[in-house]
Specification:
By secondary structure, this protein is of the alpha+beta class. It contains 13 helices and 12 strands. It has a domain at 383-440. 31% of the residues are buried.
Length: 440
């Protein structure tokens, strides 16, 4: 318990000692427990000070998770001078029943269709050097009636839309856009996070997936003072800026992805029959307000002629192609956070249906991802290949060990205690122990 208290000290206000004690009990139980992560399951593994009523009180407490996440990041992960990028993504957790707060149908990529459940949108800071993602803000996606009606109206307009520009329409300022409910929600989270960063942490890029590869999302990010990195549709109509004498003409030749000018080629490699080429250019899109820094990655099978391409872009025209590609790749690290939260920390297991307990359950599952990262970095000093299952086996062994020692009439010798503990730790492990160590 002492190592958990040390981790949490400083991130909870000094006047919230009850919350600190409750969190330590809950975190300790989550590390040791097996089975579904529910309030009842946590109370069964919590031991002294972790009755079911105490766990209920914790889940019904209003907690400033955003501040707590950031304080933990500052204490455990932040290093001045390192480069960090901010990423955002949505995660869907399936849920049955009818009473859960925010229950709706959301599109889940895992199922490739809308499913019944709840959705969260998370912001995460990624350390470019360590390539590790650290969640810093989690918010449940609760769609209002107005948002649902707006989505239905947009869908109907899309079906009835005719090709071409409407007669009599005039040019509009594309920097002044009406943000959708989704973008307003993300912008609110983004502004809150940047305010919390203050002058301590400087972030330049916000990375989102291809769903946000549009002008509205770009303007939303630029309004927050950041640059967007995202992906365009494979059939996006891009144009080279016009270089002729006609000042009224803006768009030049349209980009043909199968035949891009060699002057834009920045890298070319070949692996067997697969030829990979990377192009970088400043291009225009009719729906975007400003030029885009575009990186096009093409792959051609020389033997069969099969061709594929990906279009990445950024609002920062000075960003090098290799960094743009690398930063977009790093966005996927947040998916590993969601995977761990679901597999180990209860993001799919919660039984809470009311707003406050549900909010705490969702945030706790992502907070445990950060806690596990810290504990694993320490644990790997003895077991370099250790994973989360090894970490949980270690804390579960410590729980069994404490209970066994209480039952003995006389405390065994220290060397015997070490042998007993190592025997307990081997239960449920994935990687063998090579270096002896004592109980926590």
């Amino acid at each position: 318990m002492s190592d958990i208290i040390t981790l949490l000290t400083g991130i909870v206000n000094s006047d919230e000692r009850t919350l600190l004690r409750q969190m330590a009990v809950v975190v300790q139980a989550l590390l040791a427990m097996s089975g579904r992560v529910t309030m009842l399951g946590i109370s069964r593994w919590a031991g002294k000070g972790g009755s079911y009523r105490t766990i209920q009180r914790f889940f019904n407490t209003r907690i400033d998770w955003t501040t707590l996440f950031y304080r933990f990041f500052q204490k455990q992960f932040f290093h001045a001078g390192k480069v960090y990028i901010l990423v955002g993504d949505e995660c869907v957790a399936t849920k049955a029943g009818t009473k859960t707060h925010g229950l709706d149908r959301f599109y889940a990529g895992l199922f490739n269709r809308p499913v019944k459940g709840i959705a969260i949108f998370a912001l995460s800071l990624i350390d470019v050097s360590t390539r590790q993602s650290h969640p810093v803000q989690v918010e449940q996606v609760v769609r209002t009636k107005a948002e649902k009606e707006a989505a239905k109206t947009k869908k109907k307009k899309k079906k009835r839309a005719k090709r071409g520009r409407p007669k009599g329409s005039k040019n509009k300022d594309k920097t002044k856009v009406a943000l959708t409910f989704e973008l307003q929600r993300i912008q609110k989270m983004l502004k809150k996070q940047l305010k919390l960063f203050g002058d301590t942490l400087s972030v330049t890029y916000f990375v989102l997936d291809g769903h946000f590869g549009n002008n509205n999302a770009l303007q939303m990010v630029r309004q927050c003072g950041l640059h967007l990195i995202s992906k365009l549709r494979y059939d996006a109509a891009l144009y080279i800026p016009y270089q002729g004498e006609n000042r009224r003409k803006k768009y030049g030749k349209r980009v043909n992805y199968r035949d891009i000018s060699p002057e834009y080629l920045v890298e070319s490699t070949r692996d067997g029959n697969i030829c990979t080429r990377i192009y970088q250019l400043t291009a225009l899109h009719r729906y975007f307000a400003s030029p885009l820094n575009v990186v096009i990655i093409t792959k051609l099978n020389i033997k069969t002629g099969a061709f594929a391409h990906v279009i990445l872009f950024s609002s920062d025209l000075t960003l090098a192609y290799d960094k743009l590609i690398d930063y977009y790749r790093l966005r996927f690290q947040i998916e590993f956070n969601f995977r761990d939260a679901k597999q180990y920390w209860g993001l799919e297991d919660f039984m809470n249906i009311k707003k406050q307990p549900l909010t705490n359950a969702l945030n706790l599952s992502l907070f445990m991802v950060n806690v596990a990262q810290v504990l694993l970095s320490q644990y790997r000093q003895n077991v370099p290949q250790a994973g989360v299952l090894d970490l949980k086996a270690y804390y579960r062994a410590n729980r069994y060990f404490d209970e066994m020692i209480k039952m003995l009439p006389q405390k065994p010798a220290p060397y015997l205690l070490t042998l007993i503990f190592r025997s307990f730790v081997s239960i449920g492990r994935i990687h063998p122990i090579k270096t002896p160590f004592t109980s926590p």
